[in-house]
């Protein structure tokens, strides 16, 4: 990778951040035109993003260098199925995390970063599929504040509501209770969102009346694929990622194998034939200059 760095002054305080120009221009058509074209930024190697918050830009840099979003699904508290109107705290915390991803999607929309938009769509789609819930009112309001009403993320929220609309009453109770809004959030839902739900709902009822089978939601419908080939490639990549994630989870949750007792192997001794001992006669002590006992006795007598 080319080591050339560029400086980006972020926020109203214009805090400087540096990043590799190759990475920025590879993922963003906006930055490619800016730093690879004939603009003054290409010569000065710096630009400003005053309308972007520092924290959000930091999240973007994390994605740029690591290709991961700041709130992986594994970090979410598991959301209880909304079978009864009690879920203290969880909705609010989860909605705040989804807000970060929504803001990253909007950043990808503004600065033409399609891969970032795709990762954000995957995240939101997989969360709602896993938890079986409808979008939070505050998430809907934020999404329509940041994006045009024909944005794929806006359409995803509409489709999700139509798909799981029977949960809306329970969800409405939970969110209003946590935020103490007394229904104000519902009243603040964007007109474009409500109109989109009405049109989608009528189309769905017409299809069912005509005997058409209801299709399951497909995340690639929101990916803005340029061709059918790209769409099929995306499906295969997602399938591979899910398989890898499932295998990793399975290995992490498998109980450790029970230790087997170790059998000590005692080596067989080698039998050695015992040889008969050789009797060695003791060597007599020297008797030099010693008179015989008989001569000694005779002298005494």
Automatic annotation (TrEMBL):
Location of the BTB domain: 4-73
Xref: Pfam families: BTB
Top-level taxon of the source organism: Eukaryota
InterPro entries named in the record: BTB/POZ_dom, SKP1/BTB/POZ_sf
SMART domains: BTB
Biased composition (Low complexity): 245-262
Taxonomic classification: Eukaryota, Fungi, Dikarya, Ascomycota, Pezizomycotina
Biased composition (Basic and acidic residues): 224-239
Protein name: BTB domain-containing protein
Region (Disordered): 224-262
């Amino acid at each position: 990778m080319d080591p050339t760095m560029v400086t980006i002054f972020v926020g109203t305080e214009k805090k400087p951040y540096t990043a590799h120009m190759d990475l920025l221009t590879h993922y963003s058509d906006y930055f490619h035109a800016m730093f690879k074209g004939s603009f003054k930024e290409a010569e000065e190697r710096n630009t400003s993003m005053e309308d972007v918050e520092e924290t959000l830009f930091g999240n973007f840099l994390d994605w740029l260098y690591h290709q991961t979003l700041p709130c992986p699904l594994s970090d979410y508290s598991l959301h209880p199925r909304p079978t009864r109107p009690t879920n203290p705290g969880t909705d609010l915390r989860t909605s705040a995390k989804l807000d970060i991803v929504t803001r990253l999607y909007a950043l990808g929309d503004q600065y033409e970063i399609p891969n970032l938009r795709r990762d954000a769509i995957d995240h939101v789609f997989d969360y709602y599929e896993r938890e079986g819930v409808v979008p939070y009112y505050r998430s809907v309001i934020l999404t329509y504040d940041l994006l045009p009403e024909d944005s794929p993320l806006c359409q995803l929220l509409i489709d999700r509501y139509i798909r799981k609309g029977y949960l809306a009453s329970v969800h409405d109770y939970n969110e209003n209770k946590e935020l103490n809004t007394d229904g104000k959030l519902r009243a603040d839902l964007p007109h474009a969102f409500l109109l989109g739900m009405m049109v989608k709902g009528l189309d769905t009822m017409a299809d069912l009346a005509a005997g058409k089978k209801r299709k399951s939601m497909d995340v690639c419908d929101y990916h803005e694929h340029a061709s059918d080939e790209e769409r099929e490639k995306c499906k295969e990549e997602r399938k591979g990622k899910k398989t890898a994630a499932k295998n990793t989870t399975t290995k992490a949750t498998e109980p450790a194998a029970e230790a087997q007792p170790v059998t000590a192997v005692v080596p067989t001794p080698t039998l050695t034939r015992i040889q008969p001992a050789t009797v060695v006669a003791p060597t007599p002590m020297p008797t030099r200059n010693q008179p015989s006992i008989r001569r000694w006795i005779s002298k005494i007598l």
